[in-house]
């Protein structure tokens, strides 16, 4: 074989092997990018679920705060009415009223 043919063959082998090595990392980069995108989607979904849970808990807290306010008002009424002659009657009426409201709130 002559030297120019040998050099051309070596050059072709070098080009082919270098192309193969360059393409392989590109495939790995695509795979890494896909994994990164999937992880981001999972993180986004987890954040959405966490936000929904927080919103739900805030609603429950608001309902409980409303119940506390109602009970405080009823307690003030009870204290005021207990000072009257009909304290016993008003106590039972308020107690029934509280139970009815509790049931309504718990069922709501």
Shape: rod-shaped
Low-confidence stretches: none
Strand content: under 5%
> Based on DSSP secondary structure assignment, what is the total number of beta strands?
0
Order of helices and strands: HH
- First-last Cα distance: 94 Å
- Major sheet attributes: none
Protein name: Peptidyl-prolyl cis-trans isomerase G
Organism: Capsella rubella
Keywords: Coiled coil, Signal
Coiled coil: 54-81
Summarize the structure.
This protein is mainly α.
Plain-language structure description:
- Residues 54-81 form a coiled coil.
- It comes from Capsella rubella.
- Residues 1-19 form the signal peptide.
- This protein has a domain at 37-108.
- Helix 1 (3-82) runs antiparallel to helix 2 (87-107).
- The N and C termini lie far apart (94 Å).
- The radius of gyration is 38 Å and the shape is rod-shaped.
- It has helices at residues 3-82, 87-107.
- The protein is mainly alpha-helical and 108 residues long.
SSE inventory with pairings:
Blueprint: H1 3-82, H2 87-107
Helix pairs in contact: 1-2
Feature tags:
108 residues; mainly alpha; 2 helices; 94% helix; 0% strand
